């Protein structure tokens, strides 16, 4: 291949790569719907970003936005946890937690176009369907433990 052809191939690959995938902006919202008076600890990361540990009040959300990378491999995961204060709850006194894939381009690009909304509830982590607005169950919490804490998220 001569240099001109090679250059043309590279330019076309970048052009179509960009126009189909990368540069597209996505906003994620994670709503704390666990229980009144229950804070949600949340710590989200990607390979390149660490959004830090946050405490979200009931019915509030953490939101952030990002651009899909050139390769379409954009991935964010979040450690989440909350103290079960309900004496008749899941695991009274326990710290209910887990780590979940909250944005995965390959999984989510068709499910939520631009805005991806999650409702975090006491029974698990639900994705909000963009058309029906209904909760779709996605993940269960890990078994509660008394020694886990938010700094481990
Ligand atoms: C985020 O939280 C605010 C404040 O509670 C709420 O008004 C808004 O609807 C939430 N956004 C989404 C997309 O769930």
From TrEMBL:
Top-level lineage group: Eukaryota
One family name in Pfam for this protein: Self-incomp_S1
Keyword Signal: yes
Keyword list, A-Z: Secreted, Self-incompatibility, Signal
Residues annotated as signal peptide: 1-23
Location(s) in or outside the cell: Secreted
Primary residence: secreted
Record's keyword annotation contains Secreted: yes
InterPro entries cross-referenced by the UniProt entry: Self-incomp_S1 (IPR010264)
GO cellular component terms listed in the entry, alphabetical order: extracellular region
One GO-annotated biological process of the protein: rejection of self pollen
Family, as annotated: Belongs to the plant self-incompatibility (S1) protein family.
Protein name as annotated: S-protein homolog
């Amino acid at each position: 291949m001569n240099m001109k052809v090679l250059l043309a191939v590279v330019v076309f690959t970048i052009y179509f790569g960009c126009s189909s995938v990368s540069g597209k902006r996505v906003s994620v919202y994670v709503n704390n719907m666990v229980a009144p008076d229950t804070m949600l600890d949340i710590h989200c990361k990607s390979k390149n970003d660490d959004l830090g540990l946050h405490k979200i009040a009931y019915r509030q959300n953490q939101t952030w936005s990002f651009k899909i990378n050139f390769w379409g491999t954009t991935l964010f995961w979040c450690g989440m946890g909350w103290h079960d204060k309900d004496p008749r709850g899941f695991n009274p006194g326990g710290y209910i937690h887990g780590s979940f894939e909250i944005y995965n381009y390959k999984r989510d690009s068709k499910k939520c176009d631009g805005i991806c909304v999650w409702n975090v509830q006491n029974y698990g982590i639900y994705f909000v369907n963009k058309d029906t607005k209904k909760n779709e169950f996605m993940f269960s919490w890990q078994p509660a433990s008394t020694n886990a804490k938010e700094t481990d998220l």
